[in-house]
Specification:
alpha/beta, Rossmann fold, L-2-Hydroxyisocaproate Dehydrogenase, Chain A, domain 2, 11 helices, binds (2S)-2-hydroxybutanedioic acid, diiodophenylpyruvate reductase (NAD+) activity, Malate_DH_NAD-dep_euk
Length: 307
């Protein structure tokens, strides 16, 4: 949770009471970073302290899926957490607060928080798909022997889950000082339509399998990229992926789903990138991930009305 002034940062970290000693460790690490703009850190288990007058809230904590747990059980536990955090934001944070949800299932948790904070504009809520976006950029860069910075305008459509659709039909790569389309540069359609997509979709699970822990460094970098773009905008000619509320008019995605789209950001306000042509291959994949989100939403809302 962060409060941002013109040149300084006040950050508060909230957790449940049994985790307070862990939070003390986070506090020490934040102090030890000697961050040039960091003025103070408050570690607390009180929502009224943590959420007070926030400019930016990063909701990282959620109930992780344990072995044998049904998706429904996971959603139920998380609806409770994000309903309470949404209500606390509604009560204590600034109405201009930007809320970024990271804890999984991030899209539906973000929708739950937004529905539970009716006095905060729904456009102020977004969930993290920048990690998937960065993964897609890196896979292309590795294949072409360039750096990730040379790749732009990849898109993650949909859910931050294995149904997400990483789309490079509109992506460009800088090769020998010239910008070319990724399909043209790679000349390997079968990889782009096959292993590339599954690698990005399954990357979170692959990291967990290798580390026995969820992604940490890459997730932190993606959160920093996401917030930097919300605060300072996206570079000219570039778009990024973010889970945001759908309006029913963009890319045939039903209204009121927290779906990852390509966006541009200016003056702390995001806009859909409009008018990108969508081929049949993409259409099918975009609809599939929308269907999963609609199902998650339905289940979450059942719990939301009874929680
Ligand atoms: C990731 O994409 O690395 C994580 O969201 C995976 C997870 O389930 O924690």
């Amino acid at each position: 949770m962060v409060s941002v002034g013109p040149s300084l940062l006040l950050t508060s970290s909230v957790d449940i009471t049994p985790m307070m000693t862990v939070l003390d460790g986070v506090l020490m690490e934040l102090q030890d970073c000697a961050l040039p703009l960091l003025k103070d850190v408050i570690a607390t288990d009180k929502e009224e302290v943590a959420f007070k007058d926030l400019d930016v809230a990063v909701l990282v904590g959620s109930m992780p899926r344990r072995e044998g747990m049904e998706r429904k059980d996971l959603l139920k536990a998380n609806v409770k957490i994000f309903k309470s955090q949404g209500a606390a934001l509604d009560k204590y944070a600034k109405k201009s607060v930007k809320v970024i949800v990271v804890g999984n299932p991030a899209n539906t948790n973000c929708l739950t928080a937004s529905k539970s904070a009716p006095s905060i504009p729904k456009e102020n809520f977004s969930c993290l798909t920048r990690l998937d976006h960065n993964r897609a950029k890196s896979q292309i860069a590795l294949k072409l022997g360039v750096t990730a910075d040379d790749v732009k305008n990849v898109i993650i459509w949909g859910n931050h889950s294995s149904t997400q659709y990483p789309d490079v039909n509109h992506a460009k790569v800088k090769l020998h000082g010239k910008e070319v389309g990724v399909y043209e540069a790679l000349k390997d359609d079968s990889w782009l339509k096959g292993d590339f997509i599954t690698t990005v979709q399954q990357r979170g699970a692959a990291v967990i399998k290798a580390r026995k822990l969820s992604s940490a460094m890459s997730a932190a970098k993606a959160i920093a990229d996401h917030i930097r773009n919300i605060w300072f905008g996206t570079p000219e000619g570039e778009f990024v992926s973010m889970g945001v509320i759908s309006d029913g008019n963009s890319y045939g995605i039903p209204d009121d789903l927290l779906y990852s789209f390509p966006v541009v950001i200016k003056n702390k306000t995001w806009k859909f990138v409009e008018g990108l042509p969508i081929n049949d291959f993409s259409r099918e994949k975009m609809d599939l991930t929308a269907k999963e989100l609609a199902e998650e939403k339905e289940t979450a809302f059942e719990f939301l009305s009874s929680a």
